């Protein structure tokens, strides 16, 4: 069902950048289910318009969609003229740590350039509320877990640095003008998919991240998982991360938007479960769900990996009343359900 602009509740009209992407599509579903009208801007660099029909199947609504690049300043200004946007959730960006090390200018141009265009267009349109997708990767490797929002930040790769610079831009803007309402969400390790199996993560090429790699081994597309390091100072020797269900994460955006209705300035929240899971524990959880073993081999450490990363989620709990609800098992069940239904890159 498409909604005419005349029927809109203007207070609840959100622009979602990167809304056809993995986390964006789940966030759009959460917003629509909470009564928001949504317009998505995405250049489809890492997603597909097919996602829109997945969103429609889940919510019964088709979000407005603009196929454009945020670096195209005129296109961004036009969106704010055409739609009665009251708030922005900004997820669009490139996200591969490895690619960013090889092509740093691409990451600075895309992630920072796009954000500058976006906030300039917001300024012109007098839209002052923005929730930004940042990452746990901004924290320094010397910061001890659990990582609270005040932990030292020192990104070690251009991707993380692009996120950190954007955080600084937003902070300086909020200091210069009290009208701004900025929410910075630092995601830990998002996995899982919508329980319907209609939207999820679709990595192009060979995945870099653990869960999508595991899923492709599970479905037989990749032969075996290489586990990067079995000699860390952790109980089973493998690295520990804070995996969080993407549906929980999506709700976090809603909670941040609600918080910003009552508060100006810049605010930051870590979104994770607050609990760590090792690589071997995640492998085991997937094996239980797929009911067969995952071929794997422990090889050398991956450069730059931290032994243990998990969030202190107290601030999100206290300020947003947000808490991750889904277990690791549910994350595996939902990710596998999506993987089985969607074995390829938007085939
Ligand atoms: P994704 O690649 O699935 O989604 C990002 C979307 O942004 C894609 O649809 C892509 O086509 C679009 N996009 C990129 N550059 C654009 C541009 N210049 N103009 C318009 N659209 C553009 O990634 P995701 O996993 O959904 O991540 C969403 C956000 O969350 C990203 O900013 C990412 O850095 C951040 N994040 C992701 C993770 C993670 O592990 N997935 C963790 C922490 C933070
Ligand atoms: C998790 C663990 C690997 C693949 C990255 C980004 C971070 C954020 C989330 C965007 C590690 C191990 C992995 C494999 C393995 N993204 N592993 N074999 O590194 O915690 O975070 O994604 O913001 O910025 O850096 O996640 O899924 O890559 O790795 O053994 O084939 O799995 O060594 O211990 P990471 P990951």
Q: Which class best fits the helix and strand makeup?
A: alpha/beta
Distance between the termini: 24 Å
Using only C-alpha atoms, the radius of gyration works out to 19 Å
Instruction: Tell me the quaternary state.
Output: single chain
Strand arrangement, major sheet: 3-2-1-4-5-6-11
Uncertain runs = none
CATH class of one domain: Alpha Beta
- Heteromolecules bound: nicotinamide-adenine-dinucleotide, UDP-4-deoxy-4-formamido-beta-L-arabinopyranose
What's the CATH topology name of one domain? Rossmann fold
SSE sequence, one letter per element: EHEHEHEHHEHEEHEEEHEEHEHH
Characterise the protein shown here.
The chain has about 350 residues and is α/β, with parallel strands linked by helices. It has a domain at about 10-190 and about 245-270: Rossmann fold (3-Layer(aba) Sandwich). Helices cover about 40% and strands about 15% of the residues. A seven-stranded parallel sheet has the order 3-2-1-4-5-6-11, sandwiched between helices. Strands 7-10 form a two-stranded parallel sheet. Helix 1 packs across helix 8 and helix 9 crosses helix 11. The protein is globular, with a radius of gyration of 19 Å. It starts with 12 loop residues before the first strand and ends in a 6-residue tail after the last helix. The structure holds nicotinamide-adenine-dinucleotide (NAD) and UDP-4-deoxy-4-formamido-beta-L-arabinopyranose. UDP-4-deoxy-4-formamido-beta-L-arabinopyranose binds near residues 137, 208, 213, 226 and 279.
